[in-house]
Amino acid sequence: MALDLGSLFGKANSPLVGLDISTSGVKLVELSQAGKNELRLERFASEPLPRGAVVDGNIENIEQVSDAVRRVWKKSGTKAKHVALGMPPASVITKKIILPGGLLEEELEIQVETEASQYIPFALDEVSLDFDVCGPAQNSPEDVEVLLAATRKEKVEDRVAVAEAAGLKPVVMDIESYAARFAVDRLITQLPGGGKGQIVALLQIGTQVTHISVLLDGETIYEREQPFGGGQLTQDIVRAYGLSHEEAETKKRNGDLPEGYEQELLEPFLENAAVEVTRAVQFFFTSTPYTRIDQIFLAGGCASIPGLVDIVADRTKISASVVSPFKGMQLASTVREKQLRLEAPAYLVACGLAMRRFD
């Protein structure tokens, strides 16, 4: 009943790469242990994907995606064949349930399956189901809190097929938002006072969707998705300058666009982004008992667009910074620091997946 590839919450200690497959491309990260509580970034690499290869987190073209995985693996220079993969949050149902403590593993499985059938709108034989015992339940210490995760088997099988077609062996399947938070937890401990009592909002700005998580003392207190992403700016560039989607992406990243681009396209996009972030913050305040956010972290490919972090901080009146998941890590001699500085915010999920090796 649990996923046969180590499980959604799997662990793996042998060399392992984190492989993040998103709408825009494939990103790979390999980390190693560099002493007690010290990590070293060994390798990172990315490969763009053709439009339509991945849509809304669904793999539409297994061949195109596995080709990109093969290229990114080769480009990175890694020898590791074991990979940790992520599932898009929208395709995974998660639910915390309370079960009696002291159950044997088999009894737990039966109980979880019984509970799962109440929450999952599919037949159980169509579903990959897994669970993780979080610890004693808050209000009844003799019971345990269990996190249940379920997704359609075909969605898991597509990701496994992509990795295997590229000659790799999937051993861990995680949820992308969990992997991102795993990487961010490390950064929160680097805030003043170890981040204790700090309410941190993480905004991962993807191509089409922004995923918002609000964290407090290691717990997720709020989560939602908003239909806004960096793909909008790429589309504007395509229309304004008659470029192909791929050319627009490259020129957007390199800042290699005609005069007038900043005023005509970039500034309106930044304005729009600031409105979306402010709206996300307001939604959080109106739908929870909380009345403050202490820190905003921006992640995703367009988080490092010049001017974005400043306009967000200005409009929300909240301290904002761009996430670098590798902050405080040692860097292998092969890592190009300048490239890393530019691209790091896009590697949050891949970094969290790679960290599963030491979980």
TrEMBL record:
One of the GO BP terms on file: cell division
SUPFAM superfamilies: Actin-like ATPase domain
InterPro entries: ATPase_NBD (IPR043129), FtsA/MreB (IPR050696), PilM (IPR005883), SHS2_FtsA (IPR003494)
Residue ranges annotated for the SHS2 domain, each copy included: 16-184
Pfam families linked to this entry: PilM_2
Database matches in Gene3D superfamilies: 3.30.1490.300, 3.30.420.40
Residue stretches spanning the membrane: none
PANTHER family: CELL DIVISION PROTEIN FTSA-RELATED (PTHR32432), ETHANOLAMINE UTILIZATION PROTEIN EUTJ (PTHR32432:SF3)
Descriptive protein name: Type IV pilus assembly protein PilM
Organism of derivation: Paucimonas lemoignei
